[in-house]
Amino acid sequence: MANEWTEGLPEAARAYLEGRRLDEVECIIPDLPGIARGKAVPASKFARQDYFHLPDSIFYQTITGEWGEAAGDDGFIEKDMILRPDMSTATAAPWTGDWTLQVIHDAFDRNNEPVPYSPRNVLKRVVQLYRDQGWEPVVAPEMEFFLVARNIDPAKEIQPMMGRSGRPAAARQAYSMTAVDEFGPVIDDIYDFAEAQGFEIDGITQEGGAGQLEINLQHGDPVKLADEVFYFKRLIREAAMRHECYATFMAKPIADEPGSAMHIHHSVLDTTTGENIFAGEEGSETDAFMHFIAGLQNHMPSALAVIAPYVNSYRRYVKDHAAPINLEWGRDNRTTGIRVPLSGPKSRRVENRLAGMDCNPYLGIAASLACGYLGLMEKKAPSAEFKGDAYEGEGDIPRVLGQALDVFEEANDLHEVLGPNFARVYSIVKRAEYDEFLQVISPWEREHLLMNV
What we know:
Blueprint (H helix, E strand, L loop, with lengths): L3 H4 L3 H7 L6 E7 L5 E7 H6 L3 E4 L24 E6 L5 E2 L7 E9 L10 H14 L2 E15 L27 H6 L1 H14 L3 E6 L5 E6 L4 H20 L3 E4 L15 E7 L16 H21 L21 E3 L6 E3 L9 E3 L8 H18 L22 H9 L2 H7 L1 H19 L4 H7 L4
Parallel strand pairs: 1-6, 12-13
Antiparallel strand pairs: 1-2, 3-4, 4-6, 5-6, 7-9, 7-10, 7-11, 8-9, 11-14, 13-14
């Protein structure tokens, strides 16, 4: 299909379509949970349209499909947003039966202003705050997830998937190549889909859980990396379903197994010089480096409701289960919530280990960057570096979603960075979701309270 607009597509999308006729374009936008919403249109129609409409109510929906009363003064009239394509995000949908592209869109209101509670706009807002100071934020996300047996009955516990050997995936086989080989066919499809979409995988490793894998991505622009994580979640799910299993990004899908994190590595470059502001003369650690760490320590409790957005998220923060329970920081110490990995001065970075893989990647990265930004602006010192096993200390983060929302709702400084209107909508929607959860009686309650209390 030799249309003018296809000639300007990213290289991977052009290569995917070479010698083929494009059938369909999926016009998509991530909602608050990070689910792709939108429309599929014939390629010929997409070539003629500059935008399309969706109601703003897609951002008021809970994960269950119910609604938060977040519409504001206009009331719940479901007014249309104007969604414009970002053609730099055009990429293949290689699992479809015909030749299809996906394109992420940005949301604007009728005055051409960015919709403030659209997650991609929230991240763009935070990145722009850095750029206004002459800084360029750089991130590298790590994605952990489980491959599990198909599960169509919510009452049944989630089980590990069957491996290539015909045996269930085994736990506590971290970094085992044999364990990775067990999922070979799924991983082959993940690589093939990623290549078709133009994504570079830095590596795939077996993590500590049964059927738990980790994919690392190359560092780069925060919005571009969030786009990739958003796309990767769909890509991985599609690859898994081809092989009679599910990919899940739940923070804690299986009891007594480690949870799944989205660790976020941060560095900040000086826009003028291109140098890492965390490294000074002769490679020394700068004040800015310490201020960034202090920002994470001081503001991450307020942001936890964004980077740990569901009731299940808090089941991950268990002592001695590969997830942090506090905001200590340390060099090359995986027990701390904030880790400084081994690196040379040019690649000095700070790793936030608190974010769960269940978070919306745009909001998770935005919240983490927002905490670091506040630290850079406040210029406070962090606590002393923690030496030893941080699990021996006390937890200093909220333990349940309700508590995390209480802290988030009082965090005016964080709201100013993320956007006050986003904070309002997010809080209302998450409260509605939490209230839904509190109406559910769990098997634990029936087992232990029914006849005993």
